[in-house]
What does this fold into?
Amino acid sequence: MFEITEAAQTTAGIVFLAAITVTSGGWFLTRVSLGSVEATEFQRSFFRAGHAHAGTLIILGLLCLLFTEATALTGFWQWLSRTGVLVAAILMPAGFFLSATGQGRTTPNRLIGLLWLGAGFLIAGLGTCGIGLLLG
It folds into this structure.
């Protein structure tokens, strides 16, 4: 077994508290579903995708945070392994939600770039964590 460093413990605590904000996305989606918030079909699908990615990536990010503790990674590589997926958990949902904002929108605006930036962090974080675990 391994011990959790203070840095990982602090990060996990912040992430758990921040995860509470995902409930506001659920509340917003409920309002969209009930028709209290007007949205196009495109917007509904992007709002659902943003909410789903937020929850899923937070869980995956917490796993990477813990598994990084079992690696010999240091410095930048440790940071990327520990937090890359958590950065993606912010950027990707932001890309979905923010690129769909605006009355009657049927296509994403330029903020869709946040989604792709987040995807880069997701790939980098997962890859670094996986390689770090394989190398020991």
